[in-house]
Amino acid sequence: MPTDAPRDTPLLQIVDLHVSVDGAEILKGVDLEVGPGEVHALMGPNGAGKSTLAATLLGHPSYEVTSGAIRFLGEDITGWPTDVRGKAGLFLAFQYPEAIGGVSVIQFLRQAISARTGQEDLSVLEVRLSMGEWMERLGMDPTFAERHLNEGFSGGEKKRNEILQMALLDPVVAVLDETDSGLDIDALRVVGRGVRTVREAHPELGVLVVTHYQRLLDELVPDRVHLLVDGRVVESGGPELAQRVESGGYDQWR
Questions:
Q1: pTM to 2 decimals?
Q2: pLDDT tier, 179 (very low <50, low <70, confident <90, very high otherwise)
Q3: Mind spelling out the 3-state secondary structure of 62-109?
Q4: pLDDT score at 226
Q5: What is the SS3 assignment for 18?
Q6: Which of 28, 48, 98, 144 sits CB 3.0–4.6 Å from 44 for a disulfide?
Q7: DSSP label at 11?
Q8: What stretch of H or E contains 43?
Protein backbone atom coordinates (compact mmCIF):
# COMPACT_ATOMS: atom_id res chain seq x y z
CA MET A 1 0.00 0.00 0.00
CA PRO A 2 1.41 3.43 -0.93
CA THR A 3 1.89 5.54 2.18
CA ASP A 4 4.72 7.97 1.39
CA ALA A 5 3.26 9.89 -1.56
CA PRO A 6 3.87 13.68 -1.63
CA ARG A 7 1.09 15.71 -0.06
CA ASP A 8 0.08 17.23 -3.41
CA THR A 9 -0.33 13.82 -5.07
CA PRO A 10 -3.95 13.14 -6.14
CA LEU A 11 -5.62 10.33 -4.24
CA LEU A 12 -6.83 8.76 -7.47
CA GLN A 13 -5.63 9.29 -11.04
CA ILE A 14 -7.22 7.68 -14.08
CA VAL A 15 -4.89 8.11 -17.05
CA ASP A 16 -6.01 7.50 -20.66
CA LEU A 17 -7.91 4.41 -19.52
CA HIS A 18 -9.17 2.00 -22.17
CA VAL A 19 -11.31 -0.93 -21.01
CA SER A 20 -12.90 -3.80 -22.94
CA VAL A 21 -15.51 -6.40 -22.04
CA ASP A 22 -15.66 -9.59 -24.11
CA GLY A 23 -13.59 -7.89 -26.79
CA ALA A 24 -15.81 -4.81 -27.05
CA GLU A 25 -14.19 -1.50 -26.06
CA ILE A 26 -16.32 0.33 -23.49
CA LEU A 27 -13.97 3.01 -22.12
CA LYS A 28 -12.02 4.81 -24.81
CA GLY A 29 -9.46 6.95 -23.04
CA VAL A 30 -10.77 8.29 -19.72
CA ASP A 31 -8.76 10.84 -17.71
CA LEU A 32 -9.85 11.92 -14.23
CA GLU A 33 -8.24 12.97 -10.93
CA VAL A 34 -9.67 13.10 -7.39
CA GLY A 35 -7.82 15.05 -4.73
CA PRO A 36 -8.06 14.93 -0.91
CA GLY A 37 -11.45 16.01 0.40
CA GLU A 38 -12.92 16.40 -3.08
CA VAL A 39 -16.27 15.16 -4.37
CA HIS A 40 -16.35 14.38 -8.09
CA ALA A 41 -19.53 13.40 -9.93
CA LEU A 42 -19.52 11.23 -13.05
CA MET A 43 -22.68 11.58 -15.12
CA GLY A 44 -23.73 10.14 -18.45
CA PRO A 45 -26.50 8.35 -20.35
CA ASN A 46 -27.17 4.63 -20.08
CA GLY A 47 -24.43 2.59 -21.72
CA ALA A 48 -21.84 5.37 -21.50
CA GLY A 49 -19.49 3.26 -19.35
CA LYS A 50 -20.04 4.75 -15.90
CA SER A 51 -20.49 1.47 -14.02
CA THR A 52 -17.73 -0.09 -16.15
CA LEU A 53 -15.37 2.55 -14.79
CA ALA A 54 -16.50 1.94 -11.19
CA ALA A 55 -16.01 -1.83 -11.52
CA THR A 56 -12.63 -1.38 -13.22
CA LEU A 57 -11.39 0.86 -10.41
CA LEU A 58 -11.98 -1.98 -7.96
CA GLY A 59 -10.41 -4.60 -10.25
CA HIS A 60 -13.43 -6.59 -11.43
CA PRO A 61 -11.98 -9.49 -13.48
CA SER A 62 -14.58 -9.20 -16.26
CA TYR A 63 -13.19 -5.81 -17.29
CA GLU A 64 -9.91 -5.82 -19.22
CA VAL A 65 -7.70 -2.74 -19.11
CA THR A 66 -6.17 -2.66 -22.60
CA SER A 67 -4.16 0.55 -22.10
CA GLY A 68 -3.79 3.43 -19.69
CA ALA A 69 -3.39 3.31 -15.91
CA ILE A 70 -5.10 3.66 -12.54
CA ARG A 71 -2.92 5.34 -9.91
CA PHE A 72 -3.70 5.39 -6.20
CA LEU A 73 -1.67 7.82 -4.07
CA GLY A 74 0.80 8.01 -6.96
CA GLU A 75 1.30 4.25 -7.37
CA ASP A 76 0.15 2.31 -10.43
CA ILE A 77 -2.43 -0.20 -9.17
CA THR A 78 -3.77 -1.26 -12.57
CA GLY A 79 -2.65 -4.84 -12.00
CA TRP A 80 -3.62 -5.11 -8.33
CA PRO A 81 -6.32 -7.65 -7.37
CA THR A 82 -9.55 -6.43 -5.85
CA ASP A 83 -8.81 -7.44 -2.25
CA VAL A 84 -5.48 -5.60 -2.25
CA ARG A 85 -7.14 -2.44 -3.56
CA GLY A 86 -9.78 -2.68 -0.83
CA LYS A 87 -7.20 -3.17 1.92
CA ALA A 88 -5.26 -0.17 0.60
CA GLY A 89 -8.30 2.08 0.97
CA LEU A 90 -10.42 1.95 -2.20
CA PHE A 91 -14.11 1.46 -1.41
CA LEU A 92 -17.01 0.72 -3.78
CA ALA A 93 -20.64 1.21 -2.79
CA PHE A 94 -22.58 -1.06 -5.14
CA GLN A 95 -25.57 -0.08 -7.23
CA TYR A 96 -27.22 -3.40 -6.30
CA PRO A 97 -25.71 -4.73 -3.03
CA GLU A 98 -25.98 -8.50 -2.74
CA ALA A 99 -27.72 -10.28 0.12
CA ILE A 100 -25.71 -12.82 2.12
CA GLY A 101 -27.95 -15.13 4.14
CA GLY A 102 -26.60 -16.40 7.44
CA VAL A 103 -24.04 -13.60 7.80
CA SER A 104 -25.02 -10.73 10.08
CA VAL A 105 -24.07 -7.15 9.36
CA ILE A 106 -21.77 -7.11 12.39
CA GLN A 107 -20.03 -10.37 11.35
CA PHE A 108 -19.47 -9.04 7.85
CA LEU A 109 -18.09 -5.73 9.09
CA ARG A 110 -15.79 -7.40 11.61
CA GLN A 111 -14.17 -9.38 8.81
CA ALA A 112 -13.99 -6.35 6.52
CA ILE A 113 -12.46 -4.09 9.18
CA SER A 114 -9.94 -6.79 10.14
CA ALA A 115 -8.86 -7.08 6.49
CA ARG A 116 -8.67 -3.29 6.05
CA THR A 117 -6.68 -2.64 9.25
CA GLY A 118 -4.73 -5.89 9.59
CA GLN A 119 -6.14 -6.39 13.11
CA GLU A 120 -6.76 -10.13 13.10
CA ASP A 121 -7.72 -10.14 16.80
CA LEU A 122 -10.39 -7.46 16.44
CA SER A 123 -13.14 -8.28 18.93
CA VAL A 124 -16.86 -8.27 18.28
CA LEU A 125 -17.22 -5.83 21.19
CA GLU A 126 -14.89 -3.30 19.54
CA VAL A 127 -16.85 -3.52 16.29
CA ARG A 128 -20.17 -3.31 18.13
CA LEU A 129 -19.11 -0.12 19.92
CA SER A 130 -17.93 1.53 16.70
CA MET A 131 -21.04 0.39 14.87
CA GLY A 132 -23.29 1.65 17.64
CA GLU A 133 -21.72 5.10 17.48
CA TRP A 134 -22.04 5.31 13.71
CA MET A 135 -25.55 3.88 13.57
CA GLU A 136 -26.64 6.58 15.99
CA ARG A 137 -24.97 9.26 13.86
CA LEU A 138 -26.61 7.87 10.72
CA GLY A 139 -30.02 7.48 12.36
CA MET A 140 -30.10 3.67 12.10
CA ASP A 141 -31.98 1.22 14.31
CA PRO A 142 -29.48 -0.55 16.66
CA THR A 143 -31.06 -3.94 15.82
CA PHE A 144 -29.77 -3.50 12.27
CA ALA A 145 -26.40 -4.97 13.34
CA GLU A 146 -27.88 -8.42 13.91
CA ARG A 147 -29.80 -8.69 10.64
CA HIS A 148 -28.44 -10.83 7.82
CA LEU A 149 -26.54 -8.74 5.30
CA ASN A 150 -28.98 -7.06 2.87
CA GLU A 151 -31.50 -9.91 3.32
CA GLY A 152 -34.99 -8.40 3.26
CA PHE A 153 -33.54 -4.88 3.31
CA SER A 154 -35.41 -2.09 1.57
CA GLY A 155 -33.57 -0.11 -1.09
CA GLY A 156 -32.89 2.67 1.39
CA GLU A 157 -31.63 0.24 4.05
CA LYS A 158 -29.21 -1.35 1.58
CA LYS A 159 -27.78 2.02 0.65
CA ARG A 160 -27.59 3.17 4.26
CA ASN A 161 -25.72 -0.04 5.06
CA GLU A 162 -23.20 0.84 2.34
CA ILE A 163 -22.69 4.24 3.97
CA LEU A 164 -22.20 2.53 7.36
CA GLN A 165 -19.52 0.31 5.79
CA MET A 166 -17.83 3.37 4.31
CA ALA A 167 -17.77 5.08 7.70
CA LEU A 168 -16.28 2.10 9.54
CA LEU A 169 -13.73 1.10 6.89
CA ASP A 170 -12.34 4.64 6.67
CA PRO A 171 -11.28 4.44 3.00
CA VAL A 172 -8.99 6.86 1.17
CA VAL A 173 -11.30 7.02 -1.86
CA ALA A 174 -14.97 5.99 -1.99
CA VAL A 175 -16.65 5.21 -5.32
CA LEU A 176 -20.45 5.40 -5.09
CA ASP A 177 -21.90 3.57 -8.09
CA GLU A 178 -25.41 4.95 -8.72
CA THR A 179 -26.15 4.83 -5.01
CA ASP A 180 -29.32 6.86 -5.77
CA SER A 181 -30.73 4.10 -7.99
CA GLY A 182 -34.27 3.11 -7.00
CA LEU A 183 -34.54 5.51 -4.08
CA ASP A 184 -37.42 7.85 -3.40
CA ILE A 185 -36.67 11.45 -2.48
CA ASP A 186 -36.77 10.84 1.30
CA ALA A 187 -34.37 7.88 1.11
CA LEU A 188 -32.13 9.91 -1.19
CA ARG A 189 -31.90 12.70 1.38
CA VAL A 190 -31.03 10.15 4.07
CA VAL A 191 -28.20 8.78 1.93
CA GLY A 192 -27.00 12.29 1.09
CA ARG A 193 -26.93 13.27 4.76
CA GLY A 194 -25.12 10.02 5.56
CA VAL A 195 -22.36 10.71 3.06
CA ARG A 196 -21.99 14.27 4.39
CA THR A 197 -21.76 12.92 7.96
CA VAL A 198 -18.98 10.51 6.98
CA ARG A 199 -17.11 13.28 5.15
CA GLU A 200 -17.29 15.50 8.24
CA ALA A 201 -15.56 12.76 10.24
CA HIS A 202 -13.09 11.95 7.43
CA PRO A 203 -12.40 15.33 5.75
CA GLU A 204 -9.57 13.98 3.56
CA LEU A 205 -11.84 11.36 1.98
CA GLY A 206 -12.04 11.56 -1.81
CA VAL A 207 -15.43 10.67 -3.31
CA LEU A 208 -16.36 9.72 -6.88
CA VAL A 209 -20.14 9.64 -7.31
CA VAL A 210 -21.56 7.86 -10.36
CA THR A 211 -25.09 9.10 -11.00
CA HIS A 212 -27.71 9.90 -13.62
CA TYR A 213 -29.42 12.60 -11.64
CA GLN A 214 -29.00 16.12 -10.34
CA ARG A 215 -31.04 15.36 -7.21
CA LEU A 216 -28.24 13.44 -5.45
CA LEU A 217 -25.78 16.19 -6.33
CA ASP A 218 -28.10 18.72 -4.69
CA GLU A 219 -27.36 16.81 -1.47
CA LEU A 220 -23.60 16.31 -1.98
CA VAL A 221 -22.59 19.48 -3.93
CA PRO A 222 -19.65 18.16 -6.00
CA ASP A 223 -16.44 20.08 -6.57
CA ARG A 224 -16.25 18.79 -10.17
CA VAL A 225 -18.72 17.18 -12.56
CA HIS A 226 -17.57 15.02 -15.47
CA LEU A 227 -19.77 13.92 -18.38
CA LEU A 228 -19.04 10.46 -19.79
CA VAL A 229 -20.54 9.87 -23.25
CA ASP A 230 -19.69 6.85 -25.41
CA GLY A 231 -16.73 5.87 -23.24
CA ARG A 232 -15.08 9.30 -23.12
CA VAL A 233 -15.20 12.28 -20.75
CA VAL A 234 -16.56 14.93 -23.11
CA GLU A 235 -16.73 17.83 -20.65
CA SER A 236 -15.80 18.67 -17.04
CA GLY A 237 -16.91 21.60 -14.94
CA GLY A 238 -18.51 22.72 -11.71
CA PRO A 239 -21.96 21.90 -10.29
CA GLU A 240 -23.57 24.06 -12.97
CA LEU A 241 -22.68 21.39 -15.53
CA ALA A 242 -25.04 18.95 -13.81
CA GLN A 243 -27.77 21.58 -13.98
CA ARG A 244 -27.23 21.87 -17.75
CA VAL A 245 -27.69 18.11 -18.03
CA GLU A 246 -30.85 18.28 -15.93
CA SER A 247 -32.38 20.97 -18.12
CA GLY A 248 -31.21 19.84 -21.57
CA GLY A 249 -30.26 16.17 -21.41
CA TYR A 250 -27.21 14.60 -23.04
CA ASP A 251 -28.07 15.14 -26.70
CA GLN A 252 -26.00 18.32 -26.84
CA TRP A 253 -22.86 16.25 -26.18
CA ARG A 254 -23.56 13.29 -28.44
A1: 0.89
A2: confident
A3: CCEEEEEEEEECCEECCCCCHHHHHHHCEEEECCCCCCEEEEEHHHHH
A4: 97
A5: strand
A6: 48
A7: S
A8: strand 39-43
